[in-house]
Each structure stands twice: as structure tokens, then as C-alpha cells.
Amino acid sequence: MSSTVDAAVARLAQGQLGLATIDQCRNLGLTDRMRQQRLLDGRLLPSGSRVLRSAAAPVTWEQQLLAATLEVGDGAVISHMAAAAWWRFPGVEPGAVEISLPRGRRLPRAIVGVAHRPMDLGRPDVQRDGRFVFTRPTRTLIDLASRLSMRQMEATLDELTRRRLLSATQVAERLDELGDQGRRGCARLRSQLASEPDSSSGRRTGWLERRALSLITAAGLGRPTTEALIEVKGKRYYADLLFSAARLIVELDGHGSHATRRERQHDAERAAALISAGYHVVVFTREDVVERPDYVVATLRQLLGTRRLSCPSGEVGTESDRGGGIRYRPPGRTLRADAEQEASEVGGRTSARR
User: Fold this and answer.
1) Are 327 and 229 within 8 A, CB to CB?
2) Partner residues linked to 116 by β-bridges
3) Average pLDDT over the chain, rounded to whole?
4) Which is the most buried residue in 48, 78, 124, 348, by most CB within 10 A?
5) pLDDT digit string (tens) for 20-34?
6) pLDDT tens-digit readout, 136-149
7) How far, CA to CA in Å, does 7 sit from each of 1, 25, 172?
């Protein structure tokens, strides 16, 4: 009998990062006496006043978040810095346990964390991911407006827009709906949103591009074109920075080690297409630009000194009307074809960065 109950509790805990509530255990037939015995012999460990942890399960940040929500029960939402770490906000590392609770509820003393009691946390602000309930990226950014510096806010907007988790327009609209009363940092956030370009096209020059551009120009390497539109075999690509005469593309990798397999695959295919079209592609990470600027300058100086300062024969470079970039027309593509394509795009259609 007891072995059957233990097996049922183990299966439940396995699906909850090694956790189970006391009520869940009772429903599976684990009596209070049996529970006390397993606590004494070390098979179960307390992870709160209402939550148990299997001794075989390692302690992780995700487990601590789940333990906090199980301890509080329905209505608990992982928020603020904990949600920021879950959504991979730039510079935010996992570790914080912050929970938003319904009014009148408290975070038990057994849980080491920070409790918030927002009055206006509605359905548009929360999202379920398996057994976890988090504030969405838009609401998370609004909640953290008073705790992020302007540079962090800019970097976060840039990164999450690139990953299509939010847009400046979405943040502004939700901020208008929530209002500023009792919400610190809203003026700073609105100021940052006002300086953001329209992100509906998916293309925007972010803080990392601006930082790299400042570094390059200060080193006397010239001024590359930002967000340069390049067409290769009918497909469109946007280069972060382009030295057009040298056909040198500089890509700035803001997601670094957090890139998904799909993102890495897309980047590799994109680089292969550009290289096959005669471009040289060099990639610098956020750490390169911020922490190793001398390396960036030295690498670009060497590449610019060895690249041929002309486009391959048969290609024509023209200034693009969109984004200040440069469009290269591959051999065989006529001016009329370009004109027809331009006409088809009138009416506000924009090309997302591929």
C-alpha cells in the first residue's frame, strides 16, 4: 500500500520539478503520519509550509519559483525581476523570486522572496507557460520602469522587439490603459518610448548598433551604413552595418549565448547567402563592443585594409529611400523591375528584417 502511494507521489513530483503540495499528497493517499515519517527519514523535505520536495530533486531557480506559486495557490503570478529573467531581459540573470499576489494574500515566511500586490494585474498582463504563470514582457517592463536605467530600458526594448516579444507601440498602449498614478518610473519609460522609431517594420537601429557606430567613427574607420537593405536572389536581408565600397558587413549579435537553435540556424543561412553574393561578414557580440572595443577596431581596420574597394562587375549600388540603407541590384535585374516593386509597396507596406 505505502509503496503504491510513494510511487504515485513520485510521479506527481516528477512533473512538478520534484515538488508536491501536502493537499496533493493527501489526495494520492499519503496520510499525515506517512508524510511525517518520510520527512524524518529524509525522503521528503519541506519547501514551504504547504509544499514538499523530493530529496532526489536538485534545487533550481525554476523549482523555487514553482514552490512559491504552489505555496500561495491560485492567483500567484511570477513578476518583476523573476519574470524579466524568464523572458531573458538583457543583463537580468535568474535567481530572484518575486511574486505578485491578489489583494489580502501574503507570501509565507517559509518562502524567501519579494511579494507585490498590484491592483490592476489583468488577463492581458499574464501568460501561462506550463505550470508557471508570468507577467507578459510588456507588463514586466512597465513594472520595472523605476528599477532600470535609461540604457537598460533602451537595451531591453531593442532586444525584445528583435525577438518579437513586444513593441514600443504595445508598451505605450498598455501604459496608457494602466495609467501613471502610483506607478513609479512611468515618465522615464514614456520618454524612452517617445525616442523609439516605429517598430512595425521589425527594423530599428538599437543601442548596440549605435554604440558600435560611435566606436567605428571615433576610430576613423569611416561611417558605415546602418540597416542596409541587400537583395540576394530575390530575398531581402538587412545588414546591421555595411561598408559598401569594401562589401564588408558587420553583424552585431545581441543575443549571444541565449540564442535559440532556430535563431542560430537562421543567422547561418543568412550569412551563407550574403557570402555567396560576394560580401564578407564579420560578427561581433555585445561583449566585444562593450568590453573589447580595441579588438573590434583592430579587426575592422585589418579587414578594411584587405578588402577590395569596389563592387563586383555588373552590380549597381543605389541609395534606398527606406531606412537610409543601400540596395544592391544583382545582375539581370532591371530598373523597371525595381520601379514596379517600389510601386507595389506604396501604401505603407514595409519589409520585415529576415
Assistant:
1) yes
2) 100
3) 80
4) 78
5) 999 999 999 999 999
6) 999 999 999 999 98
7) 10, 11, 51
Four-CA torsion 99, 100, 102, 107, nearest 10 degrees: 30
Q: In angstroms, rounded to a whole number, what is the distance separating the alpha carbons of residues 310 and 284?
A: 24
87: nearest Cα among 174, 15, 157, 170:
157
For the stretch 203-245, pLDDT in tens is 445 667 888 888 999 999 999 998 888 988 888 888 889 999 9
CA atoms within 13 A on the CB side of 265: 3
Buried residues in 198-236 as b, exposed as e (16+ CB within 10 A): ebebebbbbbbbebbbebbeeeebeebbbbbbbbbeeee
- Cα 18 to its chain centre, rounded Å, is 28
Strands across the sheet containing 44-46: 19-21, 51-54, 44-46
| 161 in Cβ contact with 168 (< 8 Å) | yes
Residue 221: which of 108, 299, 162 has the closest Cα?
299
Alpha helices in 73-195 (DSSP H): 80-86, 137-143, 150-162, 168-178, 186-194
Of 124, 196, 200, nearest to 153 by C-alpha is: 196
Per residue in 123-174, pLDDT (tens digit) is 899 999 888 999 999 999 999 999 998 888 888 888 888 788 998 888 988 9
The single residue listed with the C-alpha cell 530533486 is 57
In this model, does residue 321 exceed pLDDT 80? no
Q: What is the pLDDT of residue 302?
A: 92
- Please list the alpha-helical segments (H only) found in the chain: 2-14, 22-27, 32-40, 61-72, 80-86, 137-143, 150-162, 168-178, 186-194, 207-218, 261-276, 286-291, 293-306, 335-344
pTM for the structure as a whole: 0.59
* Host H or E run for residue 87: none
Identify the pLDDT of residue 347: 42
Write down the CATH number for the domain with range 207-344: 3.40.960.10
* Distance, C-alpha 348 to centroid of its chain: 27
